[in-house]
Amino acid sequence: MPGGVLAEILALDPVKDYARISFLSTNCDFPWDVEQSLSLAFFKTYGIPSISALLDRTGEFRERPQKRYDDTKLILAELLDSGLDSDRGREANRRMNRMHGRYAITNDDYLYVLSTLVLEPIRWNRRWGWRRYTESETRASLEYMREVARRMNVRDVPQTVDALERWSAGYEHAQFRFTESNRRVADQTLGLFVSWYPRPLRPLVRTAIISLLERPLRDAFGYPDPPPLLGGMIDIAMRARAGILRVMPRRREPRLISRIPTRTYPRGYSVSELGVDGLETEPAAPIR
Fold first, then answer.
1. What is the rounded CA–CA span in Å between residue 210 and residue 217?
2. Tens of pLDDT along the chain (288 residues)?
3. Which residues contact 278 (CB under 8 A, 6 or more apart)?
4. How many Cα neighbours within 13 Å face the side chain of 220?
5. Which of 51, 72, 83 is nearest to 147 (CA)?
6. pLDDT score at 252
7. How far apart are CA 191 and CA 22, in angstroms?
8. Are residues 154 and 111 in contact, defined by beta-carbon separation less than 8 angstroms?
9. Contacts of 120 (CB under 8 A, 6+ apart)
10. Residue 151: predicted pLDDT
11. CA gap 156, 119 in Å, rounded
12. What is the DSSP string of the chain?
């Protein structure tokens, strides 16, 4: 019989207890995996020209890429780690709504971004998870996203993960195409990720990250296909990692992204620091 975190997950109702299941799954059993997969989710959104054009126009990834990345990661982490209805979670939600409220963003673009937050961790887990997500975990992830969408006033969220995958695939098929804004924002984000490594390793890291992107997305950025051997080596290494984790002792305490120092906030932060300046005085969509 399963023990520890998995036993608690299996004892919960994914429709009613989606927040607790998502917290346990993400922060206890798969913290590193989810963090990496959500970095890839960033790239997926840049393949949609209307999204990349907006990000390119704001200049956030050009002028303050590390802060933009850290703020996005921490806002999402506050919602999960502190709780959607906690003071910190509600303030993070308000700041997110205020930031987005500055721009004319379509419902479908909002929905696509949210869909990547559900689907990319699931896809990563299918390939490289040390155990497979349970049905409770995938359903809870969807229900969690549906509640976040409701608080952002995003409509027409699919009812099942399969339906979300079909909708997302159709949106990508209709929208993915090369534009200069796609390439610029992708290059700026790639440059940020590569900058975290020693200079001699950066060319290899850049190629490795590109190899993790699906072919239609690489085409939307104008990136060449990476050497096939590199993708195979990454796959072998990731499967080996999963095998090692499978026999190691399970994590006893959650790993909370919101409590880990970041490059932008090495000594911690207040939620009011996240995002762009001036949000305190701007109206926000109500949190229902």
1. 10
2. 566 899 999 999 999 999 999 999 999 999 999 999 999 999 999 999 999 999 999 999 999 999 999 999 999 999 999 999 999 999 999 999 999 999 999 999 999 999 999 999 999 999 999 999 999 999 999 999 999 999 999 999 999 999 999 999 999 999 999 999 999 999 999 999 999 999 999 999 999 999 999 999 999 999 999 998 999 999 999 999 999 999 999 998 999 999 999 999 999 999 999 997 655 555 544 444
3. none
4. 26
5. 83
6. 85
7. 31
8. yes
9. 37, 38, 40, 41, 44
10. 97
11. 17
12. ---HHHHHHHHS-TTTSHHHHHHHIIIII-HHHHHHHHHHHHHHHHTSHHHHHHHHHHTHHHH-HHHHHHHHHHHHHHHHHH-TTSHHHHHHHHHHHHHHHTS---HHHHHHHHHHHHHHHHHHHHHH-SSPPPHHHHHHHHHHHHHHHHHTT-----SSHHHHHHHHHHHHHHH----HHHHHHHHHHHHHHHHTS-GGGHHHHHHHHHHTS-HHHHHHHTPPPPPHHHHHHHHHHHHHHHHHHHHSPPPSS---GGGS--SS-TT---GGGSSSTTGGGS------
- Report the half-sphere exposure of 9 (CA within 13 A, side-chain side): 24
Q: How far is CA 121 from CA 6, 35, 39, 94, 118, in A?
A: 17, 8, 10, 25, 6
Residue 203, C-beta contacts closer than 8 angstroms, at least 6 positions apart:
none
Q: At what angle do helices 31-46 and 180-195 cross, to 10 degrees?
A: 150
User: How many CA atoms are closer than 13 Å to the CA of 116, on its beta-carbon side?
Assistant: 22
Task: Sort 35 into a burial class: Cβ within 10 Å, 0-12 / 13-18 / 19+.
Answer: middle
